[in-house]
Specification:
Helix content is about 35%, strand content about 25%. By secondary structure, the chain is an alpha/beta fold.
């Protein structure tokens, strides 16, 4: 019998090589879950903190189609920013009467990837519904955000979908939350208001301003341009602020910033809608802000709007159409209300925007709601008409040999066109 050699110790079987994509298969979902959890937590925190104004809830619900998921802006949204001041009585006590010290209409335009900002000087002459002509900042004292929105809508012929209100100290707290903002102060600024209890003392040159200093910088108006110079400084600081917010280093300040915004603002936007607009601003390429001041001239006590320039700026900034496009669009207006002269009143309103009426007549049938039949294929033009007239229905039809746009005027237009788009003194 042949002896078999005793087998020696065997080497362990080779360990299977781990593929790098196995780590990736686990790493990707874990990373997504972590980021998603942080985002959800941040969203729930903001949801629990932000004060949603009830006065314009209906307006917000009418525009829900503008916001998609996730945090996607599908259509243009106009937001009125109101900075409210404090009024003291003769004993230096805070009264319950406040005025809108700062007014800016901000338009988020996803089609062109831009954000338009139109600042309205607080001394602008405006027609305040129910109160007559006055400075535009008085609208807040007369009727709060709701009346301020109506006043701005009539002044510009632009639909205001939402509002954000900042209190007297809100802006300073927001600036402090991100560690200040860098601004090139154009000149020495020194002013003391012992009655209101604030002072401004800034030196010329590039520097980082804290919240109190930044507030003084945009409140200073003791120079030749007065409130117009103040508006220009607001634009300058806002540009610096947006540029800083888009830097990666600001991410660490995001939780504190959100908390401060939540505690110091009142808005008709939901938290999800605010986040959508914020992400839209951060994703916009280049310099996203197109900032303008309401065109006008100095007049005794007022800033007088320059109607032709306002008309051209509004058409471009809020509707994406050129003024020559409006002049080249023929409008047919048919009175379908049964109210004599109402068609003429609508035609007068349309003419103030730069449109040309080619036919003014009477419809053979009546309609319940004023209707715009658009055959231009350019929705911005029809939207501009709708904002000027009021509550309307827009219907799209193929291009034909008739007028590019037909307006069927219903009885509801009688109240909506009772006041001009711009103040009577400017027309």
């Amino acid at each position: 019998m042949q002896d078999h050699p005793t087998p020696g110790p065997q080497a362990p079987p080779p360990r299977p090589r781990r593929r790098w994509w196995r780590y990736l298969a686990w790493g990707v979902p874990v990373t997504v879950l972590v980021i998603g959890g942080l985002g959800l937590g941040l969203y729930l925190f903001v949801l629990s903190q932000i004060s949603v104004g009830t006065g314009e809830i209906a307006a917000r619900r009418q525009r829900t189609e503008a916001f998609g998921w996730p945090i996607r802006l599908n259509d243009r949204v106009n937001v009125l920013l109101m900075g409210v001041d404090v009024t003291l009585d003769n004993k230096r006590r805070v009264t319950n009467v406040a005025r809108a010290d700062t007014l800016a209409l901000i338009s988020f335009d996803p089609e062109r990837g831009q954000i338009g900002v139109l600042s309205i000087p607080r001394d602008t002459r405006a027609l305040i519904p129910g109160s007559g002509e006055a400075k535009v900042n008085a609208a807040y004292a007369y009727g709060g955000p709701r009346l301020t929105i109506r006043t701005v809508e009539q002044l510009l012929g632009v639909k205001v979908h939402f509002y954000i209100k900042l209190g007297p100290e809100s802006f300073a707290k927001i600036i402090d939350a991100i560690g200040g903002v860098e601004v090139d102060v154009e000149k020495d600024m020194k002013y003391t208001d012992s009655w209101a209890g604030f002072s401004i003392d800034l030196k010329k040159g590039r520097q980082r301003l804290n919240g109190e200093q930044a507030t003084g910088y945009i409140r200073y108006r003791h120079d030749a341009l007065g409130d117009i110079g103040r508006v220009e400084r607001q634009h300058k600081l806002l540009t610096s602020l947006v540029r800083q917010l888009r830097q990666t280093s600001t991410v660490t300040a995001a939780p504190k910033l959100l908390r401060v915004v939540a505690e110091n603002t009142q808005t008709s936007l939901t938290p999800a809608e605010m986040m959508t607009l914020g992400f839209f601003a951060l994703r916009t390429q280049g310099e996203p802000l197109r900032m303008h001041t309401l065109p006008g001239t100095f007049a005794p006590l007022y800033w007088e709007p320059d109607v032709p320039k306002v008309r051209a700026l509004v058409a471009d900034l809020f509707y994406g159409v050129a003024l020559e496009d409006l002049a080249g669009t023929s409008i047919e207006i048919l009175n379908a209300s049964g109210i004599p002269g109402l068609g003429r009143r609508v035609a007068d309103r349309v003419a103030t925007l730069g449109f040309r009426t080619v036919r003014l007549g009477t419809s053979t049938t009546t309609v319940e709601v004023t209707t715009i039949i658009d055959r231009t294929g350019r929705p911005g033009i029809a939207r501009m008409l709708a904002a000027a007239i009021g509550k309307v229905t827009i219907k799209q039809e193929p291009q034909s040999a008739g007028a590019p746009i037909t307006i069927l005027v219903a009885r509801d237009a009688a109240r909506q066109v009772s006041a001009p788009v711009l103040p009577r003194s400017s027309l």
